[in-house]
Design brief:
Blueprint lengths: L4 H7 L33 E2 L5 E12 L7 E6 L21 E4 H9 L10 E5 L7 H13 L4 E5 L10 H8 L2 E5 L5 H8 L4 H12 L4 E7 L7 H12 L4 E8 L5 H6 L14 H11 L2 E2 L8
Parallel strand pairs: 3-5, 5-6, 6-7, 7-8, 8-9
Antiparallel strand pairs: 1-2, 2-3, 2-4, 9-10
Bound molecules: iron/sulfur cluster (SF4).
Amino acid sequence: MEPQGEQAVRLGNFYPPFGAGKSCLFLSPRHCVRRRAHGARRRVSDNKEGRMLGRIHSYESFGTVDGPGIRFVVFFQGCPMRCRYCHNPDTWAERGGREVSAEEVVGEALKYKRYFAGGGGVTATGGEPLFQLDFLLELLAALKRRGVHTCVDTSGICFSEADARYDRLLALTDLFLLDIKHIDDTAHRFLTGRSNAAPIAFAKFLSERGKRMWVRHVLVPGLTDDDAALVRLRGFLDTLANVERIEVLPYHTMGVQKYRAAHAPYPLEGISAPAAERVDNAKRILRAGKYGHGGGEL
Ligand code: SF4
């Protein structure tokens, strides 16, 4: 049975990114983000005072894995990707979450400012934060005015070099956490429903502009742990400047219950978390760890 009504909205406009699906399972084609122009400006609504509003899924007050130190993590609503391993499908729907102003988010974050002292700050993640770029810029600017360290965790999928807003994004972001999901374009499309052209272009853009970045790669048995692909990914990373850290994130099945609750098929049914030796193998090939600006391990 397909999810209906609120249940469908909660899980987002799910569609199988496997090539067969041309329309959403959950929402009408009019609401399917895949039909919309990539990188197009998202609609941003205003409240009564004329302040810009964005859509936020949730917050995490003491994040320790999304950037340095202790971080207030802001989960943006909306994502144009459909990764088979996604454990946050409830962030997909563009119209889900709740509307907030940047000042409201900053007010929440600043409650925890005393914990930011050891290098922490605020991380924007999702969903896909670049999907609401105007709101993200407003939030980052408000945080920088208060001297807060900012991270953006992104797949880079919305990037367009022709969009001048990305210059401002770089100026307002201290550190990027860039997810490179697969170095091979065909495999990337199979895994996420989208080409990897924009993520690769965004990685080069950050490198050319000298922006600090940590690169992350989710390891899924049979999908993203092929040695030859990992070697190619390592070769690409070697062409980038300012990669300070590479993280291998083992796939896990914690999102299964969200699919069950929405009566949606789980895309990776039967695939388990990678064995420890496969994780170690990927870390060895990618030379995962911390790096200095010159590329040497710290
Ligand atoms: S980019 Fe992130 S939020 Fe979007 S589908 Fe992939 S894993 Fe899920």
